[in-house]
Amino acid sequence: MKKGLRAIFVFGNNEPISSWVFIISGYVSTLPATVTAFFNMRIGGWWLIIGGLTSSILYLVIFKDVPNLKYLFTNILPMFVLGGCFLKLSAKTLK
């Protein structure tokens, strides 16, 4: 746990803005978007989908030399699935 807390402070030195947007739109926004979806499924669902889309585009731009499908399937795909499920559930509750 201590290593993880120290590692987040190392990330701040001369990192490009695209790396910050990549982290914030992906990892950091997943939990708040899911919590928001419990109160408003439509907003949380779109937040997850847009965050996953932004994170995947930046991933492909930043790491264009080494595409890692494991990362895409373990981190970004669940955001799309959760977002789609929340949107589908919100459409059912509106009817």
Structure notes:
This protein is an all-alpha fold. The chain is 84% helix and 0% strand. The protein has helices at 2-10, 17-39, 41-62, 69-94. The longest helix has 26 residues, at 69-94. The protein is elongated and about 50 Å long. The model has no long low-confidence stretch (mean pLDDT 80).
Question: What's the number of helices?
Answer: 4
- Gap from first CA to last CA: 45 Å
State which percent range the strand residues make up: under 5%
- Could you give the order of the helices and strands? HHHH
Please give the oligomerization state of what you see: single chain
Helix content: over 70%
Shape: elongated
Helix-strand category: mainly alpha
Average the pLDDT over all residues and give the rounded result. Answer: 80
Report the radius of gyration as a whole number of Å.
15 Å
Largest sheet: none
Q: Domains counted in the coordinates: how many? A: 1
Number of strands: 0
Low-confidence stretches: none
